[in-house]
Amino acid sequence: MPDTESAAISREDVAHLADLARIDLDDAELDHLAPQLAVILESVAAIRGVAGDDVPPTSHPIPLTNVFREDVVRPSLTAEQALSGAPAVEDQRFSVPRILGEEQ
Question: pTM for the full model?
């Protein structure tokens, strides 16, 4: 994929990204999305140019703190109880159908 400075993204780049994300796009969608993704890349490049080295990257304007409860061991189901209603079990685990194909 090209760098964000040129922000040029080809139809083939969009098709490759769609394939990686397992999104089936037809020819019209590929032609429609390529210019839109180019605009997004140009916008990201513009923002990257504005932020100076003295500005730390943040996701929120004010700091956030998560509140966690104390981790206390409590009685729970045994593996047999948890798996008792499962339609399929293998090696004391839920057995589910494979949803992803071969790794690319």
Answer: 0.43
